[in-house]
């Protein structure tokens, strides 16, 4: 059992803007440090007969990279985001409808998957879709000394030996989705999950503050 | 996903208003919507807001082999992505008619007008040249995507810096941005397209149509010009018959608009250059408006780490290691791998027909 040293862990500054596009039903832009993602959400809307599900809504996630056409990497990221959204959306309330979530990568400076997850959650909130819980994404990296860094930049990710991303839900702080690359021990995995759970509390506080600010004039 | 169809009363209302020289948003016939240009963190990324229409352009470069017919010229590649985010009518993957039209217009506007010096992009004649790729993503479609895309593309090209290359005899060195400052592309002129929409068989004309106006228009005239009053390309679609005087009048209007827009682009580029020189952090994050109620920013926050090691140790101790359920693989013959042992078939076949499967 290696002892994991953990120094001061911090999240980069983040910012969010909701409802910035006029056409989509819900839109949000989420920024973590220099990583920035724009999310747009359409739904519930008409669904093609070939894709309809009789008792729930069909969720489709599209990730557009900045340069070039979407490739296998985007497909696997789409899978991660879709599984997380389906776990938290109350899709039984909208049978035979389609929910389309489009994520555009604006700039990638590390922790891209967690930024995609955060932008997705804010767009779903902005669209007013019924959800059983909110979710957030946190990335942490383990570098060669065994230190855990949260919210790594591209330079930090390059030097690390493992990168782990977890989607954490807001009610029980449990893990909804995990996506990892690199090698690490069981002990390090549990440490990273505990760190991400602590970090997610800050992000949920941020969600609460932004929604409170947004509706401060109406409520 | 289908777009909501336009109702008849909406159509009649719009056409009647145009006959009375009124527009939905209160603009005059020749007025453009508010144009806002912002830049991203890295060179070559820019956002253009034309009213509510939003478009993002990103320029990137790569060293490739040149075309055989032009061995000492670089390659320019344009790609407009009609993202499904921009409108529910845009579907991913499928090349719709509008997408083909916009791509072709963008290529004619920039590549055929030779606004970029492609010979300066040559590194080794016949072997290695720079390929400049411009990706334009449409983020919100509220009409006039072509103009927004052309402004975004030319601004991104002016903003872009390519890595510096030095040739010493046979050796070529490409320097990273940290080693040597990247150099801008050599751009001769800035073509900008201006769109005119025609209604009632060419009787009424509007500049910069919004999405509703585009739906009821009869035809579209697109003129791409630069500030030196040179026309780079003209395209008329929709099958309307235009008189010579109308086309000349439109080109005069276009030259006025183009000089205003070119002024705006130069100012935005100047401001960005000054900000980068002063060492300020540039990018989408900084340009996010703070005073809006729908936007919020939080500074760098530390995360408390008090109980993490104890919690992790507890969990690992509580749960035993998973059982070794997968047997190790065998190699009975070269090229054959076997994991596990087969079992008897339990389909209940008779003895004569059934065979023991190992």
From TrEMBL, chain B:
The keyword Mitochondrion does not apply. Gene3D superfamilies: GHMP Kinase, N-terminal domain. Its main location: cytoplasm. GO terms for cellular component: cytoplasmic exosome (RNase complex); nuclear exosome (RNase complex); nucleolus. GO terms for biological process: exonucleolytic trimming to generate mature 3'-end of 5.8S rRNA from tricistronic rRNA transcript (SSU-rRNA, 5.8S rRNA, LSU-rRNA); nuclear mRNA surveillance; nuclear polyadenylation-dependent rRNA catabolic process; rRNA catabolic process; TRAMP-dependent tRNA surveillance pathway; U1 snRNA 3'-end processing; U4 snRNA 3'-end processing; U5 snRNA 3'-end processing. GO terms for molecular function: mRNA 3'-UTR AU-rich region binding. Residues 32-163, 189-255 form the Exoribonuclease phosphorolytic domain. It is found in: Cytoplasm; Nucleus, Nucleolus. InterPro entries: ExoRNase_PH_dom1, ExoRNase_PH_dom2, ExoRNase_PH_dom2_sf, Exosome_comp_Rrp42_subfam, PNPase/RNase_PH_dom_sf, Ribosomal_Su5_D2-typ_SF, Rrp45. Residues 349-358 have a biased composition (Acidic residues). It holds the Pfam family RNase_PH. The keyword RNA-binding applies. Keywords: Cytoplasm, Exosome, Nucleus, RNA-binding, rRNA processing. Residues 320-358 are annotated as: Disordered. Belongs to the RNase PH family. This is Exosome complex component RRP45. It comes from Periophthalmus magnuspinnatus. The lineage of its organism: Eukaryota, Metazoa, Chordata, Craniata, Vertebrata.
